[in-house]
Specification:
- This protein is α+β, with helices and mostly antiparallel strands.
- Helices cover 27% and strands 33% of the residues.
- It is built from two helices and seven strands; from the N terminus they run αβββαββββ.
- It has a five-stranded antiparallel beta sheet with strand order 1-2-3-7-4, covered by helices on one side. A two-stranded antiparallel ribbon has the order 5-6.
- Strand 1 and strand 2 form a beta hairpin.
- The radius of gyration is 14 Å and the shape is globular.
Length: 97
């Protein structure tokens, strides 16, 4: 059985939700956004909250396949603003209890 991680994150109420300076994107539940000034630790902690909540609600464990998009996120170089977001792709593992 195949279940979309984004669907579970959305149904768990995380899509569009903010915690501190980071948030789950309002259009794509698999994307964690740095709203400005969030540390890597804060972003990781948000992903922990999401994975724990999905496990509680669906009894399915999500694993991170993390990619950081953009180097020096949020900095301006040569007149261009680099992206200021963090992308995480969750992989679904069924928790057998």
């Amino acid at each position: 059985m195949k279940i979309a991680a984004g669907w579970m994150i959305e149904k768990a109420g995380w899509k569009g939700r903010s915690v501190g300076k980071s948030a789950i994107h309002d259009k794509q539940a698999l994307v964690i956004i740095n709203k400005g000034g969030a540390s890597g630790k804060e972003i990781f902690e948000l992903s922990e909250l999401v994975t724990k909540d999905v496990l509680l609600k669906f009894n399915i464990e999500l694993e991170r396949e993390v990619q950081v998009i953009g180097d020096n996120c949020g900095e301006k170089r040569k007149g261009l603003t680099r992206p200021n977001f963090f992308f995480t792709d969750f992989v679904v593992n069924i928790a057998i209890t």
